[in-house]
Amino acid sequence: MLSVRDLTVTFAAPRGGEPVTAVSGLSFDLAPGEVLGLVGESGSGKSTVGLAVLGLQDPRTTTVTGSIRLGGRELVGGAAEPAGAQELVGTQELVGAQALVGTQELVGAQESVLRRVRGGRAALVFQDALTSLSPFHGVGAQLAEMYRLHHPGAGRAEARRRAVAMLERVGIPAARAGDHPHRFSGGMRQRVMIAMALMNDPQLLIADEPTTALDARVQRQVLDLLRELQREHGTAVLLVSHDLGVVAGTTDRTLVLRGGREVESAPTGDLLAAPREPYTRALVGAALGLDSVPGSELPTVDDPSPTRTFRTRGDAGLRPSERWLVEVDDLAVHFPGRRRLASPRDLRAEGLRLPTLRAESVRAVDGVSLRIAPGETVGLVGESGSGKSTTARVLAGLQHPSGGRVRYDGQDATRPDRELRRRLSREVQLVFQDPYASLNPRRTIARTLDTPLRLHTPLGAAQRRERAAELLEQVGLSADHLDRYPHEFSGGQRQRIGIARALAPQPRLIIADEPVSALDVSVQAQVLNLLMELRERLDVAFLFVSHDLAVVRHFCDRVAVMHRGRLVESTDRDRLFAAPHTDYTRELLAAAH
Amino acid sequence: MLSFALRRALQALAVLAAVSAAAFALFYAAPADPARAACGPRCDSGQVAAVRQSMGLDQPLLAQYADYLGGILAGRDIGDVDGSVIHCDAPCLGYSYRLHQPVTEALTDHLPVTLSLTAGALAVLLVLGPGTGFLAALRHGRRTDRLLSGFTLVGASVQIYFLGYVAQWALVYSTGLLPLPGYTPPAEDPAAWAGGMLLPWLVLGFVNSAVFARLSRSQLLETMNEEYVRTARGKGLGRLRAHLKYTARGAAGPLVQLLGLEAGALLGGAVITETVFGLNGVGRFAAEAVEGQDLPAVVGAVLLAACFVVLFVALADLAVAWLDPRVRLS
Amino acid sequence: SAGAGSTGSAPAGASAKETSPLTAALGTEKESAGPAPAVPGARPGGTVNVYNSVEFRHLDPQKVYAGAAYNASLLWGRQLTQYQVVDGKAKLVGDLATDTGTPADGGRTWTYRLKDGVAWEDGKPITSQDVKYGIERTFGKGYEVGPPYWPQWLTGEASYEAARAKYAGPQAGDLAAIETPDERTVVFHFPQPQADVPYMAAQSSSSPVRRDKDTGTDYDRLPFATGPYRIVEHVQNTRMVLERNPGWKADTDPIRNQYPDRFVFTYGKETLNINQEILAGRDGGADATTASDTLSPELYQTADTDPKARELVVTGRQGAFVTQLVVNNERVPDVQVRKALHLAYPRQQARQVQGGSRTGELATTLSSPALIDWQKYDLYPARPEGDPEAAKAELAKAKQAPGSLTYGYKNTPNGQRVAQVLVDGFAKAGITVVPKPIDPKAYLDEVHRADSPYELFEETSSVDWPTPSTLIPFSFDGRADGDLNSARYRNPAVDREIDRINQIGEPRAKAKELYALEQTVMKDVPVLPFAYPTVNQLRGANVGGAFVHPIYGTVGLSWLYLKS
Amino acid sequence: MAVVDTVPAPVRRRPAAPGPLRRLLHDRVGAAALAVVLLFLLLALAAPLVAALYGKNPVEHYGQNLPGLLSDGGLPMAPNGGISGEFWFGLEPGLGRDVLTQLLYGIRTSLLIAFAAAVVTTALGVLAGVAVGYLGGLADRAFGFLANVLLAFPTLLLLLALSPVVQSRLVDPGAAEPEWMQFLVLVLVFSAFGWIPLALSLRATVRSLRERDFVQSARAQGASRFHIVVHELLPNVRSQLLVHATMAVPTFVASEAALSFLGVGVTEPVPDWGRMIARGSEVFQADPTYMVFPGVALLVFVLAFNLLGDAVRDALDPRTGGR
Ligand SMILES: Nc1ncnc2c1ncn2[C@@H]1O[C@H](COP(=O)(O)OP(=O)(O)OP(=O)(O)O)[C@@H](O)[C@H]1O
Ligand SMILES: Nc1ncnc2c1ncn2[C@@H]1O[C@H](COP(=O)(O)OP(=O)(O)OP(=O)(O)O)[C@@H](O)[C@H]1O
Ligand SMILES: [Mg+2]
Ligand SMILES: [Mg+2]
């Protein structure tokens, strides 16, 4: 189905520096109906492979060599085109494709060829869902377009119907098909991306971290959907993921990448059971299960068997002589919905005669009460779209609540005065769910990190730069990255930059919205270790939004569960995992196992 | 959206009131004496005073302004130079002593010319401006890009009276390639209308297109690198279509804003174009009114122009909000 | 001679020389009888297009007070007297009246008789009451814009205001000073002798107006016709259509012809466009003429080099205008200094930047060659390019050096260039001139106002009719204010002389005395004559009979015909 | 990134930072454009020197004072606008001044005014547009009002009405209006109106930017509004700004010429391109040469300036790499 030979992808020197070779000499094959897992640490080139297959990198800055063949049958005499730098777009040659019926060389292929392949025979789920959806068009329309592009005969209504049906299959209600992406939660956007990729029943699906923002239940639902498609249409799937659980449950074979090179490739079962390479072994070892010792230092690739255990707060709640750091009472956030003409039926129901414009508001958060003590870590879990990010944004002061009260350190934080606002901005930091969107595309990382340091620390310019470098190293990046721009990073790297930024002013409360969702297990462990260390050293409190129950269990003192904008449960970690109160929580837990 | 429109309408009224007040004050405070102009060079000061009185210019400025506003809302009676009284109907912008005509009527006489001119010029401008800008952005850095940019830049660096004059000379008077510039009502003879306006359209559109070409080029280049454009291409959209549908939409905000401005300004400020091509539109009317110190006509023309600017700027605001759903109307 | 008839191709400047070409002498009763002398080669029919960049300010006959409008209004309006033009020479003859008027009582009483068969456009006869009513209107409110002479003369008051205080127009009742003993006779009674009544009777303000057709303000848009054409459509600032007037009889009119079927006036086109359209002859351009727009400077070269274009230029003297550099005599009281300025004045260069000799002939006199019995004189011969040495010599004789002189000019590109010429030219004679631009609209107010700070400024002056009566007595009367006497020339002897001459009732005798007085004034060099301006206008290739009217200074419309 | 930034970079640069300047110089067209613009600036500065070497000055009326150069109507007698060994670029019709020196000194006038106005309008437009777009609310409404009033007011008519007032009020009657005053008035007038289009279009952009997460993130960190406007928003509107700024210069040169035409621009005898072009269009048919020099000079300058703008834009955009 897909045959990649000797693939090398090099990014041109950003502003004169060394060219970055993101993938070098990679070869693999993918048979119809097969699912290949692509794992590896963040920044190892996984997304780059996916984009290269469809020829979507900027041809002016990217050099792709090697051969990528897409076809329905076995390759004949598959001698790859001798590796030579070829521009992806604009080159006229069509390497050997004519000879092979249904087989196409994609490296250096003509734009028209690629166009037919993209979205039709091969579809791609992009990693960053927010920035990858057009902010100007409704999601339904974006899906319908995908269908019509590859079914020229189809009418608008037909495309629309299919789009809505597909959205429902990934769990997005038909009524919201007309909404624009910025009105959706992170997980919902990700599901939109998936739905879009599945519109045309592609033969090859490249799914780049498709489920990072999804809670276990929805994740399972989506993966089931993938599997179903694969059965029906024999779709081959290249699944990029760092979640070894997902890889184990979904893929037939797994390929481990590190630094753009293949480390190991084997059937998934074998690989996970008996990894050959030390790196793989470490990676597998780093995977977190629901049986870890909470608060213990996690194994990473560099340090596969740590011993240390971080001090946790132990009992959740207030110690004497303390007051709550954050008190949230009856918080509500309603978004005005799209106005539409009320249907005759609704009107009749309400006894109205004239057609009226009605806006059904979205109750994103509806009466949430929450407390966080100093130094305490509260996990916020719940299904996608249940209002976690919205709650987090309110606490960070970015969203005006429609009702309720937020107190910080005893003071009313919904209407902070100057003094309090200053304090809040230093002591409360937010890690955004969408890392790329939260980075200014026109500022280097150095400058992005410099802002909080300049605002909240007395350091001089040179010291700040040093500190920024230090922060980057703490999250597993290097000082070399300082002068790069956000678009030059991988998804996980961006997420780590977001974390580094939040750590910069040494806050008392970090509101972290899915901070490790895009990180491979090893880096995730590294970041969690860092956070736990900080917590121990500096007594930082966390509101930790995550759908990954294993992480929550390991990291949090107390867990709050949200469902449809309401807080359905808020208990001690151990109690929750041992004996969940509500059906909903039980369901969540069940899905995770 | 509805409340936005309402608020915009209120704001527009306030703007118009402010503009009319400013126009009134400025033009009435200028050193040239309209009564003297109306009277002629041989008048002695006594005669001028008599004229001034009959034109109502001896009243305090505020009283004159109040009368004026009242006239717009409810119509009013105006004393003519000979002491007789003329009634001027509701949107009364005063009475032109120079033309012996209510200003409103005079303006409506000239408006179709200016409307035709502007509409056509805008069409040309849209093709030449964003059109070439788009092509240039697509061919970024190549020869097409440079050529197109250069072409529109020529427009930016020539002045309309020069280009208009040379173009008329070359295309109309010496070679007869194009019909004489002039205005025929489109209802009368559409072909003659288009023929007579062709050259003014082309010249006005061309001269004003450069800024659009360049702005759209840079905006497009900016937006081309957005992730969602990549997604669109990942769907199998061709480069051109992806850019048309996604990039262009993302880049359109500032352009639309500028276009609104330009449309308003073209309507209100077509003085030079109309002069160059001998079109008898509102712009020329205004210039002549200034020349003839016909204050009611000047203020009326200014107000009309202001209406257009306000209208188009508001439309542009609406369009921007419609183009980008993330923008909140406030 | 000025306005060289229908060929219209006489080169500029060559036509008007030395003595007056004009015989604006008074015609006899026989000469006043119609019909007008036929224009050679003329044929009836067709539509003449008249292009005019701006609308005429007034059409109401009692408000019209400008050469081009006088000229155009001949098409639809008639007066008591009017100028008959043959071969470019004008002669004043009776128009509605049987002759140019009969004086009695040493010029205090003037009698006019109306011709038989003169009628309004609706066919009703024109009566003496109509004439009287028309002249009464000049007293009325709103008619300040017209000439003040009838009110001043009929009441004997020096100022228009005072005259109106005595009689305030037709609304105030009957004006006793005009008698209408019968339908056909008009008798004017003046408190003082008036010599210029025949000329005043030719002015538009002497047109009859019928009381029942007086629409007040609207009369300024649609006057009721007495001439060969009537106005059938008039959209202000846009278009005006004239058709033959059925009420007009050719044999009553010794002045006007009625060749074309229609005249269509188009307003609102820029001068340059008008001229180019006429030159190109497209879309009616061949059948067109301008009414007041002159040849654009942009086209001078074409008109000089392209023989086809040169054909179409109609050239002639611009009425009785004289352009002069006015010296503010209050600020420059020393005759010697003024004389030095006169000698140093770089007239030729100043004319060169404006287009050269095509624009006019350099002047030496205060009066224009267009006046009757005019004689050229040159009291202080000066070199056209300026004579710095002579000027310096003159300055040496001055009691005090002039310091720096402020030159106020209209802020137009042309004005700026002339200013540069003057600064440069006077500097050679050691005179510092500081140029000060003035907003063109405020120019006259600014240079005329009492405490005007300018020592030098340009002005174009004209008399109201081709006798010197309105020249020295108006512009150099020390008792008049800056509006009239812009040079602020004060000479009691001259003032006394003016009063004496004003008592003379016989036109030619009066003119003779005034020319003598002019030279007395010119001895003091109150102003520096610059040029007698020339007009260059275009007519379409198919238009015949075009010449510059010797009195009104623009192409006469009443003599035009279409060649085919 | 370093060259255009208005704020001092807080971080030590890498020693060999291949800044935008180097990227710019690598771009052949950009480098050429830069050279042309610099050449013009140099010529403007060195105008007196060049004129002295050439032996003419811009104010003397050679054509009028020396016989045989101009015709009775003021046109140069020699072909091609009077170009000769003596007068390299010919003579001005009418006054007969030397075209080359006029052109040289004209660079000073035109460019000084245009640059000054461009700088002021760009600064005002950026501050107003970005600030107001970000702040929204009351500031936005107030700005919208002001902008609409100013825009609705036809500049040309205003100028015609006002410039005499300025002249009569501010200038002593006995003295000529000083050059700097004319300059100042023009710059002020251009500035008063010129900033609005830029401000409006920036406001539109910023309105959509301000809802983005990266701005929100800066807000959450307690960044001041100033910081957000200058450091977060400005870099994202830079190319828009550049377009406006580079377009402003030729526009102002042209407007200034139009104003000279209406008698409210720079008056004689200050040499000025705009006025030269205006005069050139008057005598175009008779003496096309006179039009050619200022016309071509302006065209070359405008082209170079805009190409430079393009090149700078490209050099500044981190996402479009080297070609
Ligand atoms: N600007 C908005 N306008 C309208 N609805 C919105 C807006 N922002 C969020 N919502 C809606 O509010 C609900 C909660 O969104 P939120 O982002 O808080 O979810 P979440 O719990 O973070 O989900 P996820 O895990 O998928 O990120 C969703 O239904 C979402 O569609
Ligand atoms: N446009 C670019 N210019 C320069 N370097 C780039 C660019 N895009 C990606 N890179 C670099 O290439 C490497 C591989 O990136 P890629 O996005 O493929 O990683 P990934 O495996 O998908 O990681 P993640 O799991 O974090 O998403 C990274 O080190 C990244 O910094
Ligand atoms: Mg990735
Ligand atoms: Mg979320």
TrEMBL record, chain B:
What transmembrane ranges does the database entry give? Answer: 117-138, 150-171, 191-215, 255-277, 297-323
Q: Where in the cell is it found?
A: Cell membrane
Q: Which residues form the ABC transmembrane type-1 domain?
A: 111-320
Renumbered to this chain, the signal peptide range is 1-17
Q: What is its main location?
A: membrane
Q: Which InterPro entries match?
A: BPD_transp_1_N, MetI-like, MetI-like_sf
* Keyword flag tRNA-binding: no
Q: Which residues form a coiled coil?
A: none
* Cited PROSITE patterns: ABC_TM1
What is any Pfam family matched here?
A: BPD_transp_1
Tell me, which GO biological process terms does this entry list? transmembrane transport
UniProt-recorded name of the protein: ABC transporter permease
Species this chain originates from: Streptomyces rubellomurinus (strain ATCC 31215)
